[in-house]
Amino acid sequence: MAASEPVDFSLRHDSFERWYQTPLGRALLADQRACVDHHLGNKTGARQLQVGISHRVPLASGTDFSHKIVTTPNWGPAIPDGVAVCDADELPFPGDSMDLVILHHTADFSPHPHQVLREASRVLRGEGTILLIGFNPVSVWGLRRLLSRSRTGPWGGRFLMKSRMEDWLRLLDFSVECSRSCFYRLPLQKPVPERRRSLLERVCGNGILPVGAYYCIVARKRVCSRIPRRPVWNKQKAITLPGSGTVGASRGCVGRTRVN
């Protein structure tokens, strides 16, 4: 059997971003924005970071944070201020610098999903919050992806198990505070009558059958208090090493990285 060709996630990012302009994509995005606002409406802090497939699909615009930074995997000629061009598994930010990190289908569309969570954990300060959104394979949408040969739009994502993402977060010393599946609409572009949608919501949206199209996980980074120790060296004899600035750039990006 011939070896499978490597996945071009750059093309899949573009396809998924364009799919968000379809009626079904706009409905999904509206539901995700409502879900994020519900969980993060009372969050405040200094820095909020959204890592996703595009800077043109913003979430949590109503949160009260002093700085809101968005990343995008591909450089373009009209990148606005406050947008960093970088890979999701190699963020150009110092450790412990963010109060909130939002991963919007980031692991679904990354060749290194576990490293995506590691990077999010690295830049998140202790007791900071991470919100992760991913497609649910145990759903009608997961069945649609399994049966379809198309890998455009959302069907090009990985559809990782929610339990797997929760395990990865716990291994990174996160405490899962909320985990639920959302959006019970069938993966069809034609509109669904409100009466039928309400019935599907009552049957599947009661928490007994977590078969929504996507899941939303909210977790808090737990950091144990360190016991202070007396330094074993004399500060006056310590040598300062140069080059302590921020390091980061996209492996596939030749352009600039701009962070507000």
Approximate helicity band: 25-40%
Class per helix and strand makeup = alpha/beta
Largest sheet: 7 strands, mixed
Radius of gyration (CA) equals 20 Å
Note the overall shape.
globular
Strand content: 15-25%
Strand arrangement within the widest β-sheet reads 3-2-1-4-5-7-6
Task: Write down how many β-strands occur, each being a DSSP E stretch of 2 or more residues.
Answer: 7
Poorly predicted regions: 237-241, 243-248, 254-260
How many helical elements?
A: 6
Order of helices and strands: HHEEEEHEHHEHE
Average pLDDT over all residues: 83
| Cα-to-Cα separation, first versus last residue | 49 Å
Write a structural description.
The protein has helices spanning 9-19, 23-40, 113-123, 140-147, 162-171, 194-204; strands spanning 44-51, 64-72, 83-85, 98-104, 124-135, 174-182, 214-221. It is of the alpha/beta class and 260 residues long. It has a 7-stranded mixed β-sheet with strand order 3-2-1-4-5-7-6, sandwiched between helices. It is globular and about 45 Å long.
Write a concise synopsis of the structure shown.
The protein is an alpha/beta fold and 260 residues long.
Features:
alpha/beta, 27% helix, 7 strands, 260 residues, seven-stranded mixed β-sheet
Helix-strand layout with pairing:
Blueprint: H1 9-19, H2 23-40, E1 44-51, E2 64-72, E3 83-85, E4 98-104, H3 113-123, E5 124-135, H4 140-147, H5 162-171, E6 174-182, H6 194-204, E7 214-221
Parallel strand pairs: 1-2, 1-4, 2-3, 4-5
Antiparallel strand pairs: 5-7, 6-7
